[in-house]
Amino acid sequence: MFFHRIGFYEVDVYMKRFGFNKRNVEMKFNLICKGLLLAAAPLITCQLNAAVITSGNAYYSGYIEAGFGGGYGSIEVNYNTQNNGANSLTTQYGTIIGNGSGAHGELSIIGDGSAGSASISSYGSYGVRTGMGGSANVQVLNGGVLQAFESSFWLGSDGGVAGAQGTSVVTVEGQGSQLVTTKSTNDGGRIRVGEGLSYSELNIENGGAARATSALGATDTSNDGSLWVGSSSASGSTAVVNVMDAGSVIEVSNYINLNPTYENVSAALNITEGGLVEVTGSSRWDTEMSVGNSTGDSTVLVSGVGSALIAEDTNIGSAKRIAGYTAMGVPVTSVDWENMADGEPVTDLLGNIIYNEAGEEVLGAVYSWVSNGVVYETLYPSTYLYDEEAIYALATGSIRVQDGAVLSGSTVDVSTNSANSGAYQNAESYLTVDQGGTVEADVTVNSGGVLNGNGGSVIGNVTIDGGRLAPGNSPGEMLINGDLSLLIGSLELEFSDADADFLAVMGDLYLSSAFNFDLLFDTSSDDMVINLDDFFDVSGDVFAEAGFTLEDNINVYGLSAWTIYFLGQEYSFTPTDIGDVAVSAPAGFGLLILSIGMVVFRRAVVKEQAGSIMPRTLLA
User: Fold this and answer.
1) Which residue in 392, 164, 407 sits closest to 292, CA to CA?
2) Confidence tier at 391 by pLDDT (50, 70, 90)
């Protein structure tokens, strides 16, 4: 390694003028610095605070690069310039760490504990890129700042090289330490974790911060000011963001996306031990937080007292447009573009022919357009090109809020009713509120969605519109501090010898005739008398739609005989010598309006032929 006490940008100008290439730039950089300091001092402003310890290079238009050409390189920017290089660097185009297959780059920005005491600032469209087909380790510590103005962060990518895989680990640790990307007029303001084939990890720890902002707010048609986790990663990639410890924060102005375009991508956002992730503004789209995946995993964990995820509107699971399905039913978004031909079957990247929902081969189709009088053509799968052939499959994801953590906003939609095809292998999307976790929003659970958890609370109205409500965890309880509307779907209640699920509703309960109860028994007795009223505490009114009957709307599993009481009805079932015959109370009972007062302690909820399930204290 060698020392330079000269401004990077000024040296870059001379390097470009003299035509140095990347492979010999390190040696010539050293010679030029010495020569210019002696012979051309009037032409260059020497900056003592721009010294740097480097075995990487700085070249062309203000790039900074460490690790290239299959080799190792490092750059350190330190508040203590006397001992360790520069305390600030400014580039006019970009910062690149770990560029190319086999390369490994390291970047350290170390402050004195105050924000901005050591920094790198990158201007221009290239931004900050790490692990571009190589590997990168970036540390921003003790008040160090890494900034991308009018540009973005690309953390981990394949560098656009077929077969290459990038690896990037970026850690921002300590109060005042920051990643900052901003956009005012140009494209930028994004933190992209994973691009192409890559493993990418972003860690915000011990009071560190990452911020992505767009001055245009919700009018930004590019939806900048955003965090993308695995969204543009290629099949087989992993993208992880960890925000841990009190004071650690990620703030974006528009949007957070954990909705990978391609198959078999693992995307995760973990907010733990007091960390905070917040969308501070509103998106031009319908949602500020999107979590979904066609065949991979998209997960969000919010865990621990003080940990919080704040977004106005959150969607877990979505309708994703796909090219088609393999013969095994796997949804395909990554097709073989290179070998696609007009009117010929389209294949995935493994050579498997893909099919539409009718089982017909998806064919390549030509798309033509005219620009400046020139006709251009490109090929697409017909399912991408023509709206009448479009296929929208259900993508799935999950958010778990637990151990005193909070998810806060206006709405949370679990899954969607807009897809025209189900999820791969009948996967479901989950919102789990567990062990003191709290969701502060109105929640809608659509087809393919599940709201579950034990000991958690929803502060808002809950609507089940095609999905499942499953309070407890073999068994357990849930508190809904709002109204509960059971429209279409199912409510699962579990029963054991010692315990049973329980649901507390602080508002009104509405029950549709299209809604089902699934009662799941794992008990030593196969003959029980059950009063379902005892499994609910409802502070408001109960509205049961005409047509709801115990015989038609309640399914019992794990018992051979039972008697059920609920909302003034009785439904009995006993085996007979002739066969299984169900005997029930009168079927119709109109619209009931009942008042059920809150109680502090639950009564015994199930009466058996011998013994009973013990009561349990209601959620506080």
Assistant:
1) 392
2) very high
Where is 463: in which H helix or E strand? strand 462-471
**What share of the chain has pLDDT > 90, as a percent?**
58
- What is the distance between the alpha carbons of residues 142 and 140, in angstroms, rounded to a whole number? 7
Tens-place pLDDT, residues 55-70: 344 444 567 888 888 8
Q: What is the pTM of this model?
A: 0.84
Name residue 278's beta-bridge partners.
Answer: 251, 310
- By CB atoms closer than 10 A (0-12, 13-18, 19+), residue 230 is buried
Angle at 83 between CA 78 and CA 85, to 5 degrees: 45
371 Rama sector, left if φ>0, alpha if ψ -120 to 50, beta otherwise: beta
Q: What is the 3-state secondary structure (H, E, C) of 155-185?
A: EEECCCCCCCCEEEEEEEECCCCEEEEEECC
Question: What does the alpha-carbon distance between residue 370 and residue 364 come to, in Å, rounded to a whole number?
Answer: 20
Q: Which helix (H) or strand (E) holds 25?
A: helix 25-39
Q: What are phi and psi of 85, to 5 degrees?
A: 70, -145
Q: Is 588 helix (H, G, I), strand (E, B) or coil?
A: coil
Beta strand pairing status for 52-54 and 2-4?
antiparallel
Q: What pLDDT does residue 220 have?
A: 57
Distance CA 541, CA 547 (A): 18
3-state secondary structure 328-380: CCCEECCECCCCCCECCECEECCCCECECCCCCECEEEEEEEEECCEEEEEEE
* 267 vs 240: CA distance, rounded Å: 6
E strand or H helix that includes residue 16: helix 8-18
Spatial contact of 105 and 67, defined as CB atoms under 8 Å apart: yes
Rounded CA-CA distance 99/273 in Å is: 34
Considering Cα of 306, then 307, then 312, then 315, what sign does the dihedral take? Answer: negative
| Stretch among 61-70, 265-274, 303-312 having the lowest mean pLDDT | 61-70
d(CA 142, CA 405): 27
Q: What is the tens place of the pLDDT at every residue in 144-156? A: 999 998 889 999 9
Tokens coding 462: 């809950």
The enclosing H or E element of 442 equals strand 438-446
For 569-573, what is the mean pLDDT?
90
Instruction: Give the chain's radius of gyration (CA, Å).
Output: 30
Tell which residue, 590, 484, 593, has the closest CA to residue 537: 484
Q: What is the DSSP string of 54-78?
A: ESSEEETTTEEEEEETTSEEEEEEE
Is 291 in a helix, a strand, or coil?
A: strand
